[in-house]
Amino acid sequence: MIDQIKDTLQALQIDQWKIIEIYRSGEEVYFIGKKLDMSRRKDVRLYEVTVYSDFVEGEECYLGESRTRVDASMDENEISKVLGDAKKAATYVKNKVFELPVPSEDDTAGKEEQSISSFGTAPLASFIPKIVGAIYDQDDIVDIQINSCEVFLTKVEKSVLSSTGIDRKYTVYENMIEIITDYTGEGESVELFIIHKYGDLDEAKIKSDVKEMLNYTKLRAMASPMIHIKNIPVILKGEAVEQFMSYYVNRSSAQLKYEGLSDYEVGKSVQGEKIEGDYISVTMLPVLKGSSLSSVYDDDGIFLEKKELIKRGKLLSRKSSAKYAHYLGDKPTGKLKNYSVALGDTKMSEVKEKPYFEILSFSDFNMDDMSGDLGGEIRLARYFDGVETVQLTGGSISSNIEEVQNNIKLSCEAMQVNHYFGPNFIVLNGLDVASS
Amino acid sequence: MKVKMSTFLMAKKSLAKELIDQLYDIYDYASILGIDTVGKRYALKKTGIELNDSFWAERGYVVRVYNGVHYFEYSFNELTREVFPLILERIKTLSMTTKALMVNQEIEAMHYGLLEDEAINEAFLSEVEIQIDSMSHEEKLDKMRKVMEDTLLISDELIDARVFYEDVLISKMFLSKNRDLQQAYTWSNATIVPIAIRDGQTKYAYSMMSGLKGPELLDELHTKSTDAVQSVIDLLGSSKIEPGEYDIILDPDMSGLLAHEAFGHGVEMDMFVKHRAKAVDYINKQVAAECVNMYDGAKSAREVSSYLFDDEGVLGTNTKIIDKGILKSGISDALSATALHTVPTGNGKRQSFENKVYTRMTNTFFDKGENTLEEMITSIKQGYLIECFLGGMEDPKNWGIQCVASSGKEIIDGKLTGKVHSPIYITGYVPDLLKSISMATEEVILIGNGICGKGHKEFVKTATGGPYIKAKGRLS
Question: pTM for this one?
Answer without folding.
Answer: 0.94
